[in-house]
Design brief:
Order of helices and strands: EEEEEEEEEEE
Distance between the termini: 40 Å
Shape: globular
Number of helices: 0
Strand content: over 45%
Largest sheet: 7 strands, mixed
Radius of gyration: 14 Å
Number of strands: 11
Helix content: under 10%
């Protein structure tokens, strides 16, 4: 059974930092491109950052220079370090795993974790 479990969200003041974690179970981690998405009220879900491989990282323009995505293969966990947070970063943050097994493609989501940045 594949599960993605996010943690680390919360309430922080503008300029502060948070680190989100996404623990992946079910044997897919080594095959997956991992992404962090967010969805603010009334807005569409958007890609924040993704790590396709150790050196292939992509970021939304709005978070470049402030956020950093990383993965720990030994812990089957992906992280999103968020610094210099702004009120507009307030959203539910979701972890995503995409890839293929020898039999099927896969696309899994976590349950989301709320990040609220106060001004």
């Amino acid at each position: 059974q594949v599960q993605l479990v996010e943690s680390g969200g919360g309430l922080v003041q503008a300029g502060g930092s948070l680190r989100l974690s996404c623990a992946v179970s079910g044997g897919i981690f080594s095959r997956a491109a991992m992404g962090w998405y967010r969805q603010a009220p009334g807005k569409q879900r958007e890609l924040v950052a993704e790590i396709v491989s150790g050196s292939n990282l992509n970021y939304a323009d709005s978070v470049k220079g402030r956020f950093a995505v990383s993965r720990d293969v030994a812990k089957n966990t992906v992280y999103l370090q968020m610094n210099s947070l702004k009120p507009e970063d307030t959203a539910v943050y979701y972890c995503n795993a995409k890839g293929t097994t020898p039999w099927n493609p896969f696309d899994y989501w976590g349950q989301g974790t709320q990040v609220t940045v106060s001004s």
